[in-house]
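Inverse folding, one chain.
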């Protein structure tokens, strides 16, 4: 989980502050020492840590904070604002050429997931109304062109190739002509991975930039490489002039040092983050939301957006009619579990929920396993049993247990969960449910 280590440590520091009725300068100094250590352990650039801690300390010792009724909350607010500012302050959105045809040039080191990210970006652009084409300009890596073609097929986006050419500039120019001819309005150029200190290969990128005049140059970096990713970003920016960064493998980086350092060191914003291996797991980067997650405040906006993305209005209306008529079946229960899985599973949902601490996520793996067990049980039932669980007598449960490979006790547990879910949904249909939900969320 992104920033897990840092998040745990920072939340521990602020939990200690909240236990004090008032704060002294010594309390602030002690807390800032812990914050500094937490950031350094998260592999954040030392200069960045020093400036960050100095700024937070100065603002925290201000008269307005020290004299407030809740100084600890004021300090947390300052840290939240400083973290947001450190990662870019505001969202840095992908921009498009005003002439209608946009070219994105993807660059980076080898092994950062650049080719896959080209496909993810193409899919994201498709979902946002664009007509992208991919262009294979990696002329060095064996099977690089084949890989891009497979990626293009997986997201249903055309791929331009010129296998006989060994000049990226020639390939890119031909791709532009082909894309415009076919009515595409975005071209994503996949270049070969290279070190920022390789003068010959970096010069090739400089020439490609002069030839195609890309609207944006996007650097793909691997979050797991920590400060090496920051150094790469600095090198590429100095030599080429990048417009934004796409940080891959953020879901596997529990430290987060690269994401916290890159903007400050390079001056270039993170525009997207890769949060998984699936092609639809590329997300726009929101500094304020990420800061909120780090401090355990959740990310309700991203949760809502994710739910809306997977929302099927027709299914929702049908489910509402069933609940009102008390016809919520095990088939519907299974479908709702599938919706949670589509949203990234329990772990991702809890990560975005405010007020959910580590102590409440320790059983996530067990919960995911239980999902699979319940699914196997329901699929081992007849249609009649799914629609009317009240007919599940002892002999039926024994048969289902044998068919699903689960003990009878697990079937009993499933029925109990199903009854609880049905009862909760009926409660949500009653007048005043919306007000009750609002009160619940205000409590976080």
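Residues assigned per position:
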């Amino acid at each position: 989980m992104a920033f897990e280590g840092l998040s745990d440590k920072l939340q521990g520091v602020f939990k200690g502050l909240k236990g004090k009725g008032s704060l002294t300068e010594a309390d602030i100094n002690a807390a800032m020492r812990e914050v500094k250590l937490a950031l350094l352990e998260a592999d954040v650039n030392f200069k960045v840590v020093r400036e960050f801690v100095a700024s937070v300390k100065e603002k925290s010792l201000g008269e307005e904070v020290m004299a407030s009724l809740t100084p600890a909350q004021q300090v947390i607010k300052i840290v939240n604002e400083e973290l947001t500012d450190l990662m870019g302050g505001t969202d840095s959105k992908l921009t498009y050429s005003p002439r209608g045809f946009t070219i994105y040039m993807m660059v980076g080191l080898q092994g950062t997931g650049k080719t896959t990210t080209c496909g993810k970006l193409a899919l994201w652009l498709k979902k946002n109304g664009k007509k992208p084409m991919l262009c294979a300009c990696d002329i060095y890596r064996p099977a690089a062109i084949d890989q891009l073609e497979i990626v293009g097929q997986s997201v249903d986006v055309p791929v331009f190739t010129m296998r006989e050419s060994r000049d990226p500039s020639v390939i890119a120019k031909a791709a532009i002509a082909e894309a415009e001819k076919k009515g595409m309005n975005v071209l994503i150029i996949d270049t070969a991975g290279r070190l920022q200190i390789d003068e010959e290969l970096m010069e090739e990128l400089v020439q490609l930039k002069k030839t195609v005049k890309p609207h944006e140059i996007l650097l793909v970096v691997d979050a797991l490489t920590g400060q090496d990713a920051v150094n790469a970003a600095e090198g590429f920016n100095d030599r080429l002039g990048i417009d934004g960064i796409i940080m891959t493998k953020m879901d596997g980086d529990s430290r987060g040092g690269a994401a916290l350092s890159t903007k400050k060191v390079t001056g270039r914003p993170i525009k997207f983050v890769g949060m998984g291996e699936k092609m639809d797991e590329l997300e726009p980067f929101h500094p304020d939301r990420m800061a909120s997650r780090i401090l355990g405040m959740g990310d309700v906006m991203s949760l809502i957006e994710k739910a809306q993305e997977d929302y099927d209005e027709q299914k929702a209306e049908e489910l509402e009619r069933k609940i009102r008529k008390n016809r919520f079946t095990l088939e519907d229960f299974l479908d709702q579990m599938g919706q949670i899985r589509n949203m990234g599973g329990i772990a991702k949902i809890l990560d975005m929920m405010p007020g959910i601490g580590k102590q409440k996520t320790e059983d996530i793996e067990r919960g995911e396993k239980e999902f699979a067990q319940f699914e196997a049980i329901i699929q081992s039932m007849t249609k009649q049993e799914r629609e009317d669980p009240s007919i599940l007598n002892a002999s039926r449960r024994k048969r289902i247990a044998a068919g699903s490979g689960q003990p009878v006790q697990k079937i009993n547990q499933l029925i109990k969960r199903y009854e609880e879910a049905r009862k909760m949904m009926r409660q949500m249909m009653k007048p005043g449910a919306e007000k009750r939900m609002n009160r619940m969320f205000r409590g976080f």
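The first helix runs from residue 4 to 18. Residues 433-444 have pLDDT under 50 and may be disordered.
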